[in-house]
F-box domain-containing protein (Serendipita vermifera MAFF 305830), 487 residues
Amino acid sequence: MAHVTPKLGLAFDYHTMRHLIDINSLPVTEDIKSSGRVIEEMEGEIRDLQTRLSQLQGELEIYKAWIAPIRRLPFDILSYILEYCGQGDRKTLLSIAAVSRLWRETILGSPRAWSFLNLNEHRSNTLTRLFLQRSGQCPLHVYLPRDCQLGTLSNVVDRIECLSIASMPFGMPSLVFQNLKKLSLRGGDFMINLGAIDISHFPSLRHLYCQTKFKDSLNPMYETVWSIAPLETLSIVAVPNPAWIDLLKECIKSLKSLKIKYSTFKISSGPLRLTFPCLEYLEINNCAPEVEKSPLELLTPSLKVYVEHSEGYFNARPLHRDLRTVIHARFDQIPGLDNFSQLRLLQLEEASNVVTVLDLLLADPSLCPELNLIQALLSWVSDEYCTAVLEKLNRARTRPIRIEYVDNSVWSKEFPGAPETYLCWPDALCSEPPEISDYGWSQRPSLNQSPADSIVLSRLRLYGPDCTSHLGLGGMWDDVDEESFDH
């Protein structure tokens, strides 16, 4: 058999060679030598192609980055994104300034981005002064850890709009926070007097989240002169002394959102009737087994949302009774449904309670005439039985009811109007209160918001503060030397 010795060279047709070789024949010495040279040539070309591929991929990434949407965003949108990325960690802002000249100019030209001061992170006075300088005259959002003093911030109290503290810093009672709107007293062992939060210290206060207990009720000689700013949001712990009642009385005309926690002791105050004409959100957390009836009889002609948690203690009826205007309700137990004439959405933390609620509605189809959606956390339930009861119930009702089982990611969203909306913790930064819609949670839109803004904002809400990783910034701040960005 004649053996073919291929010619070697860059223009060699390897496919032709493979067709001409008879792989069933045994190669002679010359075939082995020539084939070895062909193999070396092929491997060399593969290495060249791999090198070229890496080069092209690098050039491709450069071109993609060059025309990336993040480089073409207007200054105002880019500054909003960078500001949002930097709210949770001081190093993020410092690192953003090191990415490029454009980003450095953008972040330095965005004073609001530097206005969130978490002193868990900003322990350095030098770093705190840097943030104060770069924040210009923007209102400040300040988080003070336990036993941390105001320090440098004492000179800028007029700029503090939101303050979160775990204890009363030294010298704070003598200061006037002229523009403070949101105050979070995070609890712990310390107690405060009502006089510490009166209108003379916080004339602009609108949102108070108070997990701290009050020491005593007002001294009778100060009852006629003590007052508090017109609060719109209040979260409070009920205590044996009537100090919390005094606080409620002072803001009954202005409150729109109220959260009360009954602790593990009896309430000394007897039943008290109070009318809250503007209240739209009410949440009661009952942690006391002896509290079977609220010590307050609240009249709430504008109430839209009612939430009740009983911490495992059964109450035959809701602790709040004036429910005629409620359209959203959430319970961790089986609620009494007698007074919900306007209820549209009922949320049950226990999916097993859905069956019981359906049985109650089937026994009296006139209950909750406007109800059209029941939501519950995902759990094992008898779908077959639920379906049968629901079909029978809907035949007896004018308005049909749907059942929806949701997971924790949906359930954990704040209920419309909840006081937590106004917290300013490192993991729950201040935001505008959501609008109360029929179903779900919607952010209040800006009148000047463009379609491009809407797209960017939707991405920010989707990814949250971790959106840096989706902008190609993730993992780049771990070794940043903050001292190198002092100027």
